[in-house]
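Friendly challenge for the regulars: who can give me the structure tokens for this chain first? No prize, just bragging rights.
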Amino acid sequence: MASPRSSSRQSSSLSSSPMSSRMQSLQVDSVQRWMEDLRHMTEVECMCVLQAKPIGVEEDAQQGELIVATGVGGGDHVARNNLQTLLRRALVVSTELGKMFQRLEKGRWQRVHSTAVRANCHVRSLVHEYSAARTTPPEMQKYEKSLLEKCMELTTITERCLHTDDEFFLKSMREAIHEILTDVSDSFSNMIDMALANEIRLLIKQIDCSDSVHTIGSAISNLLSLTQDGPQLCSIIAKEGAVVSLFKICRQDRFRDLYAHALRTVASICCVEEGINQLDKVDGILCLADILTDESSVEAARAEAAAVVAQITSPHHTSTQHLASFLESMHDIVTALIKLCDSASCGEVFLLASAALANITFFDSMACEILLQLNAIHILLQACRDRQRVDTPYSKDQVVTILANLSVLEQCASEVLQDQGIERLLLLLGEKPSSLSPSEGAACERVQQKAAVTLARLSRDPEVSQTAIQLKAVPRLIELCRSPTERNNSDSVLVACLAALRRLAAGCPDSIEAADHQQLIKPRLVDSFLLCSNMEESFV
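First reply, four minutes later:
Bragging rights claimed.
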């Protein structure tokens, strides 16, 4: 299971969010933002008027349309820095280049030319402003020069296409322009990556060289902001050594107040393999274990350490090399995580800790045995009764995932019975979204499916099977099989419920009525699935 930070933050995962959003946004006055954007845009508009007369109107848009880009980042003190300007400009240029590709395919030559002029102006403005604010690295200067030449060539060649109706000529020009435009896009992307890497190096230098908590915290905030812009930026950040620098902070007592902030950034960077590799190289797992097991660590730091664990143990990662070092500290980490679940002061802390445990139980059966020894079933079922800790389908998804993985162990059944776990599983079978959010709906489906899987596994024990039948599990399972809306039209929930129903019927055949047995138990599983998946609501 992937780290649910994104969906949780949308719901309240941990994920996604998919985990409200912790992504930092610019909190600036709207008029101030408009003035900043207008300063960039009006210059381009004037050049467009001068170089691309006349400005006509086509059916889909006006020739002089302009793009207002939004920045990313922290608060007012960040809004004007080079990083924000760079990202804002990059978005504008990328959008213009994308439009140009589309208009080229449609043969709208006047639109193609005016877009080329605008893109050229934006690129020149970006290069000029960035160079004025920073000493541009030599390798980046080469890209800048080449890019500016290609942009000018693009403007010139598209202008030639305005003065002819020769289809053969225009066809050959379309191919040439497409090739140049592709080169411009690639060169621009490489230049922006270099510029971002340069800015990221400066932020990392602040973290490495400063003794000021404020300065380091500001640099970490900027890095965290950048991680929200996607995996590509996370890869650049990882390659520049941010993970190494952040763990240096987490190993110094004088920066304890920055642990949570630094670890949150590490978790975001570790959505890409480069980040996990860097974490492994600096023995980051040992540092995480130290923070999780240190009783003097504040809850926020331990929660963010749990988030990193959840991220690096996600089954979605293709590389598992880092898990070898994880196994060495697994007992300590699992123990600390289940304690954090037990003492969590809010739903988000519980979600982070339980998501980490859920992922861990997927890749090593020893983790399940450790959890049973630590009375995990009692702790998790008690948490489900506490709305302060388990307050969303995302949290319930983590709990039922752990229960499903623990249920493969024989000794699990007696502990579930002892803590009225069958009643809880039946309640989870009735989980429904409280909003129209697709992520919440998907989480509810996972809860229903895994509750049914857990029930099926536990029903190998005759006492569990008898208890489930007495608690009317069979009618609920039949309802989920026959009513698509009850299971949110989910095929995975249907399969799990059919399997659970058949397991209960095997132990107590008399618990199933003849008509239900004929349709849901007697046929092959695939035939019952096809029958139920094609049912209309009126059938029930």
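Residues 146 and 357 are 51 Å apart (CA to CA). The longest helix spans residues 167-209. Your move, everyone else.
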